[in-house]
Specification:
By secondary structure, the protein is mostly beta strands. The protein folds into 6 domains: 2-32, no CATH class; 39-120, Immunoglobulins (Immunoglobulin-like); 124-220, Sandwich (Immunoglobulin-like), CATH 2.60.40.10; 226-319, Immunoglobulin-like (Sandwich); 326-426, Immunoglobulins (Immunoglobulin-like), CATH 2.60.40.10; 433-547, Sandwich (Immunoglobulin-like), CATH 2.60.40. The strands form 8 sheets. Strands 35, 36, 37, 38, 39, 40, 41, 42, 43 and 44 form a 10-stranded mixed sheet that branches. Strands 4-3-7-8-1-2-6-5 form an 8-stranded mixed sheet, with no helix packed on it. A hairpin with an 8-residue loop joins strand 32 (400-408) and strand 33 (417-418). It is elongated.
Length: 559
């Protein structure tokens, strides 16, 4: 103002003006000057996303403000906040826009200032892991993909769930990586076990907006393991016999122990057997352990795991004997021609893994002079299958009668057993019971006669009873060759080789039953020992006894 006064005091035209008038003039000019803007701004926005923030700075408390966003859309009001004119707007397309802000300060004309809007393309960031979950020490690669593909920028990887620049913690071994063709990768230093919250942050560039991925939880867990349990006695043992167990953990861990249990109870001394860090084996549990009870025992080996290796377990079932067995023998035929094949099937119960059945054809066990049937790699010896079955297919070159026997071999866990004899005829008539007609005499004797074909059948036991009688009549007798033995109210007579006659004197009750029903059903069981055999064969037949009045004091039948 002093300059202005100096200028005006030197002008004759205004010499008459007073200093006060000049001062008033200058003051008025100052009051009428617009409030100065502190500076136009450049804003950054993302296409398709709302922008909200300052577009201009002012030095007064504005009365009103209008923002022209420079993209051809309608103006919008601005608000003041912390010395700024703020506004909200969404640019639909990327590019550079020149906008203006017009505002009104008190006692001043409206002022318009320019601003520049740099609008970039929105991006999305996707994060993936090459291994998740992963094992400690595993080489993992994180891959970040930016879409759409930008023309620059870089990516930072953090492991605490926060983006870079917002508190994110840089992953050791991962440096900011330039985006190439929309992709950036990071191979960090190996992780220790735990869970890591990984975030990838794209910086953006002049044309593409920055973005960050969703959090990827990388789980670094112990290495998976497999435990294999073995029984030193091959899954079979006997009461009070020593046994031992060992477990192998794979892959070989760097520590941990194995616990062994028997039916859920820890085996003494085997609660925590250390695992070798060179072989993975936990041994022995233990060479002085003995089962105290018979039956099937479930043994479990459980590896404890450690910081780097997961727990695992294995189970085996040990048969602790000795177990009793039964052997059942059947044949595809009971009579064949010379040279024809016949199949014998032995079924051993209970079933077990392994075992051997021996088939002989003279009724004797192999250790007692038995003659092996010609089947199997070793004559007569056939391994048991998984179902406890052994099959022997053979043919016989000599005609005659054969007494087939199947013997299940004993082992430490299972007792052996013999089947019943199976009678086979080769090239001759099949043995059996041929029952002749029988009749009864009320006055005297009830006569039953049955014929057994084949040589050497003169020894045995015959049984008959009146099935309809309320008090069953039963006669039992053991006969010798061509002899007769009286037993109670019945008798057995061997009339000649191959013929057995059983005679019973019925009780009054039996006779009454026979008279009433006119006929009765009899069950006849003949037990005999074939020639050359030490084992008896049992045959059962059902016959009908009919009532027939006779005046003879005794009636016989047959020859």
């Amino acid at each position: 103002m002093r300059s202005l006064l100096r200028v005006f005091s030197g002008c004759g035209a205004i010499r008459a003006w007073s200093v006060r008038a000049v001062a008033a003039l200058v003051g008025g000019l100052l009051l009428l000057a617009p409030a100065s803007a502190l500076g136009a701004t450049t804003i950054t926005a993302t296409a398709g996303q709302p922008f909200s923030g300052a577009v201009a700075q002012v030095s007064c408390t504005i009365e009103s403000a209008t923002i022209n966003w420079g993209d051809g859309t309608a103006t919008s009001p601005g608000t003041q906040s912390n010395g700024n004119v703020d506004g909200t707007h969404t640019y639909e397309s990327p590019g550079t826009y020149n906008g203006t802000v017009t505002y009104q300060c008190p006692n001043a004309d409206k002022t318009t200032v320019d601003f520049t809007a740099d609008v970039t393309t929105a991006t999305t960031t996707t994060l993936t892991s090459s291994q998740n979950p992963s094992a400690p020490g595993a080489q993992i690669t994180f891959t970040e993909t930016v879409s759409p593909v930008p023309d620059g920028g870089y990516v930072e990887f953090t492991d605490n769930g926060l983006p870079a620049g917002a508190g994110g913690s840089e992953i050791p071994g991962c440096v900011p990586t330039v985006v190439s063709a929309g992709v950036a990768t990071c191979t960090p230093n190996p992780f220790t076990p735990g869970a890591y919250s990984i975030v990838a942050t794209y910086s953006g560039d002049a044309n593409y907006a920055g973005s960050f991925s969703s959090t990827l939880t990388e789980t670094v867990g112990p290495n998976s393991t497999t435990t294999t349990l073995i029984d030193g006695d091959g899954l079979a043992s006997v009461v009070d016999s020593y046994d031992f167990f060992a477990a192998t953990v794979s892959p070989v861990p760097d520590g941990g122990t194995v616990a062994f249990t028997d039916d859920g109870v820890t085996i003494p001394g085997c609660a925590a057997i250390a695992v070798s860090t060179t072989s993975g084996v936990a041994k022995y549990c233990q060479d002085n352990f003995a089962f105290s009870s018979q039956g099937y025992h479930t043994i479990v080996a459980t590896y404890s795991g450690d910081a780097n290796y997961a727990a695992s377990s294995d189970m085996v079932t040990v048969a602790v004997g000795p177990f009793a067995t039964t052997t059942t023998l059947t044949s595809s035929q009971d009579s064949v021609a010379v040279g024809a094949t016949v199949t014998f099937t032995a079924t051993v119960s209970p079933t077990r893994d392994g075992g051997l059945v021996v088939f002989t054809d003279n009724g004797l066990g192999l250790d007692n002079g038995g003659s092996p049937v010609n089947c199997g790699t070793v004559p007569g010896q056939v391994p048991l299958s998984g179902g406890g079955v052994a099959t022997c297919t053979a043919s016989f070159s000599t005609k005659g009668y054969y007494s087939i026997l199947a013997q299940d071999g004993a082992d430490p866990t299972f007792d052996g057993s013999f089947s019943s004899l199976l009678f086979l005829s080769v090239g001759v008539r099949s043995p059996g019971i041929i029952v002749h007609p029988v009749f009864a005499n009320l006055r005297d004797w009830l006569i039953l006669e049955d014929e057994v074909s084949g040589p050497g059948v003169v020894k045995g036991t015959a049984i008959a009873k009146l099935a309809a009688s309320t008090r069953a009549l039963t006669a039992r007798a053991a006969s010798s060759r061509m002899g007769q033995i009286v037993y109670g109210s019945g008798r057995v007579t061997v009339t000649r080789a191959g013929r057995v006659a059983l005679t019973i004197k019925p009780s009054a009750l039996g006779l009454a039953a026979l008279k009433k029903h006119h006929s009765l059903r009899l069950t006849v069981t003949v037990k005999f020992t074939p020639k050359g055999s030490k084992r008896a064969i049992t045959r059962t037949e059902n016959v009908t006894v009919t009532y027939k009045h006779s005046t003879k004091s005794k009636t016989t039948s047959g020859k």
